[in-house]
Amino acid sequence: MKGNVTVRFRNTFPIAVGLSIAACAHAAAPDLLIATGEAGRYGGSLVVLERAEPKTLNPVTALDVPSRDVIRRMTADLITINRRTLQTQPSLAKSWTVSHDGREYVLELRQGLRFSDGHPMDAGDVVFTFQVDLDEAVHSPQRDLLIVGGQPIQVEEIDATHVRFRLTQPYAAAERIFDSLAILPRHLLEKTWREGKLGQAWGLNTPPAEIAGLGPFRLKEYRPGERIVLERNPYYWQMDQKGQRLPYLDHIEFRFVPSEDAQVARFIGGEADILSRVGARNLELLRREAGAKDDQLEDLGPGLEYNFLFFNLGSVDAQRYPEIAARQAWFRDVRFRQAISAAVDRDAIVRVVYGGRATALWGHVTPANRLWLNTALPHPARSVEHARRLLQIAGFRWDSEGALLDASAKPVQFSILVSSSSPERAQMATLLQDDLNKLGIHTQVVPLEFRALLDRVLNSRQYEACILGLVSGDADPNPEMNVWLSSGGTHLWNPNQNQPMTPWEAEIDSLMRQQMITLNHAHRKQLYDRVQRIAADNLPLICLASPNILVAARRGLGNFQPAVVDHYTLWNVEQLYWREPRQGGVQ
Amino acid sequence: MLRGYLLRRMLHGFFLLAGISILSFVLLELAPGDFLGEAKLNPQLSPQTLLALRERYGLDQTLPQKYIQWLGSVADGSFGISFAYNLPVSQLLWPRARKTLQLTLTSLALSWLLALPLGVWSAAGRDGWLDRTVRIVTSILIALPDLVLACVLFFVAVQTGRFRSGGPALPVTILVLAALPMLVRHVRSAVLDVSSQPYVRVARSHGIAGARLWFRWLLPAAANPLCSLFGLSVAGLISSSLLVETVVGWPGLGPLFLEAIAARDFYLVIGPVILSATFLIAGVLVGDLLLYAVDPRIRIRQ
Amino acid sequence: MKQLRSNQRLGTTGLICLHVAVLGAGFLAPYDPAEQNRAFTLQPPTRIRFVDGQGQFHALPFVMGVDGRARSLRFFVAGAKYRWLGGPSSRIHLFGVDEPGHIFLLGTDEFGRDQFSRMLCGGQISLLTGWLAALLALGLGLGLGLVAGFFGGWRDALIMRGAELFLALPWLYLLLAIRAFLPLSLSPWTTTLAIALLTGIIGWTRPARLVRGVVMSAKERDYVYAARGFGASSWHLIARHCLPETYGVLFTQMALLVPQFILAEVALSFLGLGIGDPAVSWGTLLAPLRQLAIVASAWWMLLPALFVAATAWCFSLLDNEGERNGAVP
């Protein structure tokens, strides 16, 4: 088509090399991607510990983290985001073109690919995958990702190796949508889908022969509650620089161990090879223990998680919860929130809660997100005097005992909800309590079970303040739309608004919508910088700290390149290998 | 007559289970939050999808509706469907119940096999060095908070590298150490009670002494409270190892149950509750039956 | 029962000392239990010395400050404010050292809070929970046990089956639910009461069963038949003849239940359902031991567990049942 702009990527050269090698080889040979890691050797199995077992192996309906972890090793997507560089790179699609208005993408698939059961893959499988994901009857969580501008993406097969995607409006970073969207085998699932039973397909009791994917591994065995074993996919479409077909490992075993301490114990005892995230104290423990101290124990710096304190700013039924409604007069005053932010001892949080292995935050974008961080934002040091000044200006005063009173002489007190299953946030609450005491504010920490807390915050809105954390799956702002749009369901301090309640929320709304359809990165960054500035000025979320990503792996594991985005350790599992042969497998 | 007794007890048990199931449903409904709570926190899910999912899982049904649906599933053996796994609850329970029973049966056997001789010897050598040691150690173990003990043992296991942390040795040790002290105390106290009876003096005058006296004559006579206690041990076969399994990482019912509670996976919570209640009722019944078998006085009274 | 055996004397003395210490926690503790010393997190217990660097013996013990200077232990020092049983407030503490020295007798936790002070003050909530819950359980158990044992019949069956029902329910779940329902503005004391109430209600079954057993045998006595023959009402019979028989059982049960409920509160805190900061209880004091890394690196955090165990042990010394069989140490 006239006027199309062809967009090229960073990995053009290896692809060109790979293509030419493939072209010189037998005409029917598959189009393999050449991985950029060091070349390794075959053999061995890897034992990975998960906090819970997967609930399903169905890529269309899986919601929980363990399920997605396992499924991602068995499936592949069209375009993937490199977890180290956070840029997109070709996966099953070896190249793609974008129309200059950003509404049309044409992807070229690799040739000669096969699913893990040997059945050939073609564009029909891609179309099928998107049909299923978009099918309203299936209720896939993936569906919402594929709705752009209120309309679903349209998918069309051009020929056996080309697929066209049409969007109703331009969407920034649309190619990032394709990351983690698993391509499904038509030959195994089409019949089930037509019968309306796709949601129930590929549960945990499915025999391995009925499951197939394009990932580096395929299902071998599942023992309920105990472990799930994946074996090498002989038809995998990547190879290394020496021409060896990936993956190197024979097996991966996921074992389910609910408590982090038990996981650390198993690693020390030699019964596990990788720990995906550990706490700071456990890392210190590992560094001291004979069974672990020579292994690869890495502190990767901050990830994308941000922990914050927020107040209930939404409208609360004054009849039912009169106290909360009365206290909202304080919470809604921005100077109150600014004072609290000034009084928080973020350094103590980093030191005491995370043993120094965290970064203090003044905004929700962490330093790990170099592409989007607004570096011009100030990081004011803690100042209790400044906080007091702000409170004074806002009309508060102190009584003879030092307790803070508002303009009508009511003592300033409130409760802070915290999840009982997160010891770190509970500790943050304890530190915050002491900090607020210095301002004369008396607070009560209320530990609640996580579901009960969510119910209070999102449904009944019966809370005053809360400490929570969120993790972005991606550096790009688009997945976080619902946090910043005032109509969003995860706009925690005041979700699901019909109209934005404050002018700054209205401004953030328009900025977010604009950046979503802007294609130029520099321009998008300008818009998002402004969003961060407004958030820092108005403090709907008083950001506290971001924990560093701490991982552990056996010293003999080659190509171990942990990243600060999910999946921290296994994102390049096809390239992991054992430098020396291991005796037997780990039982 | 025994059959009649058994039938009556089973009928009782059946009604009890029905009552427990209804009360459990009510309690679960009371707890705030539901299965999709965490999904709501996912910024990428739209309200429409959430609504559709709510309908699919039947979260908006009234309590009686949910209960009747569940009764139907009991009839066909599946005991409801787990929201998270999309599998029948019974299918999820059996493999894990087996693993739990592995732990608890072993610790039951070990604790009783250790408690009986320890208790009897302690009673026999009353106020002697063995008795004193046993009494002091059991007092201390009972007074220590169980969970703290478990954590310390876990740490010791990791340090010494003795226990394979995935193996059954550690959890069984913790369970035995938790149950043994009380058992030893009770055995000792029951046997001592009996030893002050006049017929014991008669037996002694007949020349029956030592181990034969204590194990062959006194222990059976002291059986009454011990049978009830054994029944209670059996009753706890499912529920006693819940927390230990989660701490140690043993793939039994514990992690499944606690995760289901945290996720509000309705039917998956009810399943283990009913299972554990069944064991409780069966255990009490076992205790009573043992009593019947062991104590001739009860047989005669009947 | 009037004469106290040696073990009971030991237990009673221990318990009296414990309760006095806990009631006077504000005075005896050198620091406020919520006071954080962020520069001194996870410190081992301060060494109290009698002999200084030069080999000189001092009658008054001292501690070495961070700056290397020795600071003597002083008595009746002015410190953080506290209240005696929620009433009059004071600033005088039994002992302490001058700033910037510190005397952390049991070390500090991860926030730099003095564990010794927290242990004493935490006892207030824990003991209160234990006693209240035990009283409630005994009260309920006594009432229901009397009815079941004396009247028998359908009342007995109902109550005993009810007891089995109670034992079988998933209480963990109920506790989660209740904890979530409590209003936000509850003071920690009210939360304590609520938790005590709940655990007490759950615990009535065993005392009820035992009281029932006692009453069942008591009502078969001849004099009871005689009294009935004289036209005494059921309530009179219960109050006059059966109730006194239960005192032994009640006393024993009390001695067993209080530590049981104290330990139950510890278990609840382990599961994250305990009292929130800044209130402190033995449960929240021991909860950090959940983490392997704490047990591995901060051994002094285990010391309060020994104190709790000692408390439970003192209660068990009062146990009458054990006394019958030749005294429990």
% residues in beta strands of chain B: under 5%
Average pLDDT of chain B works out at 83
Number of helices of chain A: 15
Largest sheet of chain A: 8 strands, mixed
User: What would you call the shape of chain A?
Assistant: globular
Fraction in beta strands of chain A? 15-25%
Helix content of chain A: 25-40%
Average predicted local confidence, pLDDT of chain A? 89
* Unreliable stretches covering 5 or more consecutive residues of chain A: 1-13, 22-27
User: Could you please say which CATH topology of the domain at 97-265 and 275-291 in chain B applies here?
Assistant: MetI-like fold
Distance between the termini of chain A: 58 Å
Q: Pair with the most extensive interface?
A: A-B, 58 and 50 residues
Helix/strand/pairing category of chain B: mainly alpha
Total number of beta strands of chain A: 26
CATH structural architecture of the domain at 97-265 and 275-291 in chain B: Orthogonal Bundle
Work out the oligomeric state of the chains in this entry: heterotrimer
Count of helix runs of chain B: 15
| Low-confidence regions of chain B | none
Largest sheet of chain B, if any? Answer: none
Going by CATH, the homologous superfamily of the domain at 97-265 and 275-291 in chain B would be MetI-like
Please describe what this structure looks like.
The complex is a heterotrimer of chains A (587), B (302) and C (329). Chain A is built from 15 helices and 26 strands. In chain A, the strands form 8 sheets. In chain A, strands 15, 16, 17, 18, 21, 22, 23 and 24 form an 8-stranded mixed sheet that branches. In chain A, helix 9 runs antiparallel to helix 11 (423-437) and helix 14 runs antiparallel to helix 15 (521-538). The radius of gyration of chain A is 26 Å and the shape is globular. Residues 1-13 and 22-27 of chain A have low confidence and may be disordered. Chain B is 78% helix and 0% strand. The longest helix of chain B has 36 residues, at 89-124. In chain C, strands 1-2-3 form a 3-stranded antiparallel sheet, with no helix packed on it. Chain C has a two-stranded antiparallel ribbon with strand order 4-5. Chains in contact: A-B, A-C, B-C. At the A-B interface, helix 5, helix 12 and helix 13 of A face helix 2, helix 3, helix 5, helix 7 and helix 12 of B.
